[in-house]
Amino acid sequence: MASLDEGYTDEDGTYENKGNDVVADLREATSINWVIVDTEEEAKGGVESGDYYAAVGIDKQFSRNMFRMLTDWTGKPGHHLLRKRQEERRGHQDHRHGGGDAEALHQ
């Protein structure tokens, strides 16, 4: 898990960082052993090396999008999931897809 969220300051000057809030909640969760890293590169590297099953990243504009979604924004707060292909996790190379690269899933 890596949060790239830069936070957001609203019109009255209040700063919020919802990405940090999500990370703090996951640190307390016990159902999954979340590994929190500082950068997206660390998260991707962990997936590609096989240390992590998947990596979740919180986008830079996550907080801003959370606060502005009802006024001037038509998307949704961003996150992405990076995981190894099922064939690679099982130790098989899938030559149709070039082998051991991780694939990104976006929502």
Structure, explained:
The protein has helices at residues 18-28, 40-49, 62-68, 86-89, and strands at residues 2-3, 8-9, 15-16, 54-58, 79-84, 102-106. With 107 residues, the protein is α+β, with helices and mostly antiparallel strands. It has a four-stranded mixed beta sheet, sandwiched between helices. Strands 2-3 form a two-stranded antiparallel sheet. β2 (8-9) and β3 form a beta hairpin.
Helix content: 25-40%
- Spatial gap, N to C terminus: 15 Å
User: Beta-strand level of the residues, as a percent range?
Assistant: 15-25%
Strand order of the largest sheet: 1-4-5-6
Question: How do you describe this structure in short?
Answer:
The chain has helices at 18-28, 40-49, 62-68, 86-89; strands at residues 2-3, 8-9, 15-16, 54-58, 79-84, 102-106. It has 107 residues and is of the alpha+beta class. The longest helix is centred in the N-terminal third of the chain and has 11 residues, at 18-28.
